[in-house]
């Protein structure tokens, strides 16, 4: 009786582990994509600005963008209800949509409010505009995540 139960359990655990791996790989790919989209909007290389220049504005903007993408991916996975291919596809589509909406929001703030991310990441001290844009990134992530659900 124990052997009969072990086989289905092992199969379910194996499928679950593969699903986790697939979602993790997709999530990391989307986080990297989001990072490079932010990288396109700043002067210089974002990784250099964060690591070598130790710029808090760049770090906060990149971090809030990553957190927002993470929220969207998590909501996409949750809303798929255990259907792997549907969850992966929705995570991909909605993750890319979230990145695009964050980029549009950043450009909108630049035009309407005069808050330039390009300027913010050249400032050595944390700027109030960075906090506002970071909260905007997170808010867009939450709105997109809830829309997915």
UniProtKB/TrEMBL annotation:
InterPro entries: DUF350. It comes from the Bacteria. One of its GO terms (cellular component) is plasma membrane. Keywords: Cell membrane, Membrane, Transmembrane, Transmembrane helix. It is found in: Cell membrane. The keyword rRNA processing does not apply. The chain crosses the membrane at residues 20-38, 59-81, 87-109. It is a multi-pass membrane protein. Belongs to the UPF0719 family. This is DUF350 domain-containing protein. It comes from Sphaerisporangium rufum.
């Amino acid at each position: 009786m124990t052997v009969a139960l072990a086989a289905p359990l092992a199969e379910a655990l194996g499928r679950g582990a593969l699903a986790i791996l697939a979602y993790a790989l997709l999530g990391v790919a989307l986080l990297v994509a989001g990072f490079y989209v932010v990288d396109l909007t700043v002067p210089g290389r974002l990784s250099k600005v964060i690591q070598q220049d130790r710029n808090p504005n760049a770090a906060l903007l990149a971090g809030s963008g990553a957190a927002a993408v993470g929220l969207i991916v998590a909501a996409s996975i949750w809303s798929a209800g255990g259907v792997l291919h549907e969850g992966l596809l929705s995570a991909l589509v909605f993750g890319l949509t979230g990145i695009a909406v964050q980029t549009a929001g950043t450009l909108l703030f630049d035009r309407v409010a005069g808050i330039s991310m390009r300027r913010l990441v050249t400032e050595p001290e944390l700027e109030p505009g960075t906090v506002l844009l970071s909260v905007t990134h997170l808010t867009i992530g939450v709105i997109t995540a809830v829309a997915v659900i």
